[in-house]
Design goal:
This protein is an alpha+beta fold. Helices cover about 25% and strands about 40% of the residues. It has helices spanning about 55-65, 120-135, 135-150, and strands at about 5-10, 15-20, 25-40, 45-55, 70-85, 90-105.
Length: about 160
């Protein structure tokens, strides 16, 4: 059986962080996802769904330090249902995404600097760029050899979709 949720959406507000008596940290934040479709008249319509996301411990601390309203995030986790009583004693039921991973995909305010403005992040690109530039000749050789083999089978580099 599988219980897995993957969301890419925008934060509706900054994470709300609580520190419990046992020392555990929990953060909650809403994520909005959009679905676009054409109605009967041919006009584009958008349906926005809101998802309550919960993260625990070090992930909650990271959310507190990095996430802000408007950020576009990638979230992975599981769907969880829990029941609780409100202050009037009424039984309530909540559905949440308990995330075990998140990553900032894009920040709404692009002038705020790096900090995860790309997916993969700018820091990932910085660590891979020097490695790509240094062995440029071996990569060209590696790319040339398969192209020669492919030309024997009748295909060429022009046939590649990228």
């Amino acid at each position: 059986m599988v219980n897995r949720v993957i969301l890419i959406g925008n934060l509706g507000k900054d994470p709300e962080v609580r520190r419990l008596e046992n020392g555990a940290v929990v953060a909650k934040f809403p994520v909005a996802t959009n679905e676009n479709y054409k109605d009967k008249s041919g006009e584009w319509q958008t349906i926005t769904d809101w998802h309550d996301v919960v993260v625990w411990r070090t992930l909650a601390e990271r959310a507190e330090n990095t996430l802000t309203k408007g950020d576009q995030v990638y979230v992975e986790g599981k769907l969880s249902h829990r029941t609780w009583q409100d202050k009037d004693g009424n039984n309530r039921r909540t559905t949440e995404v308990v995330a075990n991973y998140f990553r900032i995909v894009n920040r709404r305010d692009k002038s705020s600097g790096g900090g995860g403005g790309y997916f993969p992040s700018a820091s990932d690109e910085m660590t891979s760029t020097p490695r790509q530039q240094q062995p440029a000749q071996p990569q060209e050789t590696a790319q040339t050899a398969p192209a020669a083999e492919e030309s024997d089978s009748g295909s060429s580099d022009d046939d590649l979709p990228f």
